[in-house]
């Protein structure tokens, strides 16, 4: 087969999601694994969402509402924005693809942090445009350096807040100062996938900036705090004019019927959201205290995950933890060769992680 693949597509490295538990258990010959690698909700999905999806299953022979009217209206009311500001996506990463298709051409540039969510780079390169990387500074976004990288070719700037994979935040004052340096031709995309977990009152809230004349887009998702990662539903909030352009490139029926029904119900489940956030914050503190007792260096987070410095090869540490039946995330591919990332689970899951961690750290760091 002779395919004429453009150079900018050949330059893309495919996104590699974490392996499912079932696959890892087959490979390693283990069972009863604990997965704390993908920042998922340890409580599962919202019960109201599950009930709503069961009801919606009776109509699966019908196409979904192509505009997602009920869900868009409910998101708009909850956030205090106009329905015209909301665009639904098959996960918030689909919104990234819409933005790059609508706004970028070959030769354009997009500024983003390194490390960051890989889909920013993939979608930018898919449009023939170029990513411009700015390293994190002591695990924080270096907004001064990001501003310094903006040129007349810059069409988009990607931020995430709280930051994945470090769990740090961009403060309100920092963000406003940065916005003052951004020219009108550059759209600022602030990905708030973990915003529900942020407890710091100084954390910037992108919704305060995305419905006026400034080209600011906020991305949010039902995958994390709402526990609906498996049905792929997210959304973007942005100026209405920009939303109109995204609707021109949006796939028809991109938000499926079950996703719309589940997300609508999840927005009403305040008790589940409060329980999730309370559990995550409490379990993070539980693990911090245990790691301090072991003398292990970790980095407190405003998300539902955090980094741990294992002071040895993180890939090897990941493999050793797998053999204990605990799945964590190595940060080698993110540029942190001695860090792992751990998601907050239930108390039972977290205790199992800590027991396995202590065993592995003592094996890999004799005399610890």
UniProtKB/TrEMBL annotation:
Quote the subunit structure annotation: Homodimer.
Task: Give residues where N6-(pyridoxal phosphate)lysine occurs.
Answer: 224
Under catalytic activity, the entry for this protein gives: L-histidinol phosphate + 2-oxoglutarate = 3-(imidazol-4-yl)-2-oxopropyl phosphate + L-glutamate
Superkingdom is: Bacteria
Pfam family for this entry, one = Aminotran_1_2
Q: Where is the signal peptide?
A: none
Family recorded in the similarity comment: Belongs to the class-II pyridoxal-phosphate-dependent aminotransferase family. Histidinol-phosphate aminotransferase subfamily.
From its record, what is one biological process in GO terms? L-histidine biosynthetic process
Species the sequence originates in:
Desulfosalsimonas propionicica
Alphabetically list the UniProt keywords. Amino-acid biosynthesis, Aminotransferase, Histidine biosynthesis, Pyridoxal phosphate, Transferase
Among InterPro entries, the record links this protein to: Aminotrans_II_pyridoxalP_BS (IPR001917), Aminotransferase_I/II_large (IPR004839), HisP_aminotrans (IPR005861), HistidinolP_aminotransfase (IPR050106), PyrdxlP-dep_Trfase (IPR015424), PyrdxlP-dep_Trfase_major (IPR015421), PyrdxlP-dep_Trfase_small (IPR015422)
Tell me the GO molecular function terms: histidinol-phosphate transaminase activity; pyridoxal phosphate binding
The protein's name: Histidinol-phosphate aminotransferase
Pinpoint the Aminotransferase class I/classII large domain residues. Answer: 34-357
Q: Which SUPFAM superfamilies match?
A: PLP-dependent transferases (SSF53383)
The EC number(s) this enzyme carries: 2.6.1.9
Q: Which NCBIfam families match?
A: hisC
User: What EC class is this?
Assistant: transferase
What are its cofactors?
A: pyridoxal 5'-phosphate
- Tell me the route in metabolism or biology where this protein functions: Amino-acid biosynthesis; L-histidine biosynthesis; L-histidine from 5-phospho-alpha-D-ribose 1-diphosphate: step 7/9
| Keyword Cytoplasm in record | no
The record, for PROSITE patterns, names: AA_TRANSFER_CLASS_2
